[in-house]
Amino acid sequence: MKKYCHLSQFERDRIQALFESKTKPAEIARILARYKSTVLRELKRNRKKVKEKGRTGPYLASLAQRKADFRRLGAKSQWKKINQDDNLREYIIQGLKRFWSPDEISGRMKWERQPFCASKTAIYEWLYSSWAQQYCVYLYSRRYRPRKRREKKTERILIPNRISVHSRPASAAWEMGHYEADTVVSGRKTGSQAALTVLFERRAKYIDFGKIPNLKPEINSRVQKEMTDKLTTVNSLTMDNGLENRNHESLGIPTFFCDPYSSWQKGGIENANKMIRWFVPKGMDISKCPKEYLEWVKRILDNKPRKSLNYKTPLEIMIENNLLKVPFSSLEIKTPEVALRG
């Protein structure tokens, strides 16, 4: 005969099949190598309930398993109700101080028909918890498992004063001067922490980026500040939830953050990153990219005609709307001496 253990889903499936074939509970117990009382208790507790008096519902293995799981889940937290019920807790403490065992306390409260109840198992679990270990001295065995009470940790705010992208003004859909920010990182195998911090104007499709040695918030915000200082109007900045954006308030610009794992909420810069990746492919060590080469990539992308701009370039749109402080002559394309592509 098996040692005590809960019935499994497989055993319940067999009970259902045998019970539906009119097999007697004693025979079912013999086939499963279980006690007859185990099978009888299973059929009594976990059969489907019917409203008609004098009738018993069918035994369904899937329903029986759900009932057993729910009952077991509730049993694991039964001791918690002792903490929530002052009268029940006081009754148990008084019983322990009289050197009653948990079984005697549980049985006595049932005999007295108290308005509360707790099983001996629930009382033991409560005693072994961090809330009642001081009362274990009243047990004959005085055994207990030391457990430290969990204290609430100070909430760690990753990005202070974070404002959701859903609060971004509706005018960002058609007004110039609303930007998105992101980073393009080096390949993991290179061991380099260097990255590009990218800025993207949502209407003009203008792209600007700068190289940073790592993703520390101070460095990232400093380079972002240098890029925004070259612009006449920056109405908002939309970012993701990376820790490199922790110092967003130092920019002095209204910043908004996408929902977690929702990069589509700043789809413009995601597309810009894809174009940058053509020149700075994944796996490349960005720390080895010369400044002249990155400037050349930037000018190539900003002088690229776009269908969405009626085949104007992002640079032309920026100049038309007076969004740049930098003179036009310094933005002309210059072919770098070193070509890293390929």
Describe the structure using short key phrases.
about 350 residues; alpha/beta; Nucleotidyltransferase, domain 5; 3 domains; 5-stranded mixed sheet; 12 helices
CATH superfamily of the largest domain: Ribonuclease H-like superfamily/Ribonuclease H
Number of helices: 12
Annotation, overall tally of beta strands: 5
Q: How far from one another are the termini?
A: 72 Å
Helix/strand/pairing category: alpha/beta
Helix residue percentage: 25-40%
Number of domains: 3
Q: SSE order in H/E notation?
A: HHHHHHHHEEEHEEHHH
* CATH structural class of the largest domain: Alpha Beta
Strand content: 5-15%
Any idea what the CATH architecture of the largest domain is? 2-Layer Sandwich
3D shape = elongated
Largest sheet entry: 5 strands, mixed
CATH fold category name of the largest domain: Nucleotidyltransferase, domain 5
Mean pLDDT: 85
What's the arrangement of strands in the largest beta sheet?
3-2-1-4-5
Low-confidence stretches: none
Oligomer: single chain
